[in-house]
Write a structure and sequence with these properties.
By secondary structure, the chain is an alpha+beta fold. Helix content is 44%, strand content 23%. The protein is built from four helices and four strands. Strands 1-2-3-4 form a four-stranded mixed beta sheet, with helices on one face. The longest helix has 24 residues.
């Protein structure tokens, strides 16, 4: 059973990250922002304790399109989401739409390190 304070902390963290992700979406150019609205998001700690922003798409082509805008995306993530050290652009095929190289029920993607130059 989760204690009341743990549950409140988790709810507060979720609300904070949802707001931060919305601010990142709103700050991106219209082209990138449209791509972002079709994605799902998550934030998880890595093995080294650094946070990673997961951007989950439904197709490999979306990953490729977002990869082309990584400089803009990473700049806004650094500016609006302090503490996030990596961005993972992932594809999780849904509803039979699969990439040639992705088996069903698998997630693959690219991880981008946010360097000190980005900060």
């Amino acid at each position: 059973m989760i204690s009341e304070s743990s549950f409140q902390n988790r709810s507060l963290s979720q609300a904070l990250y949802e707001t931060a992700i919305e601010r990142v979406k709103d700050s991106l150019s219209s082209t990138v922002g449209r791509e972002f609205t079709q994605c799902q998001f998550g934030i998880v700690p890595g093995p080294d304790g650094q946070r990673m922003l997961f951007v989950i798409t439904e197709s490999c082509s979306q990953v490729e399109q977002l990869s082309a805008y990584m400089e803009e995306i990473s700049g806004e993530v650094v500016r609006l989401m302090p503490g996030v050290a990596r961005i993972a652009l992932c594809v999780c095929p849904i509803g039979g739409r699969e990439c040639d190289s992705v088996a069903p029920r698998r997630v693959v993607g690219r991880i981008f390190e946010l360097t000190s130059d980005d900060v």
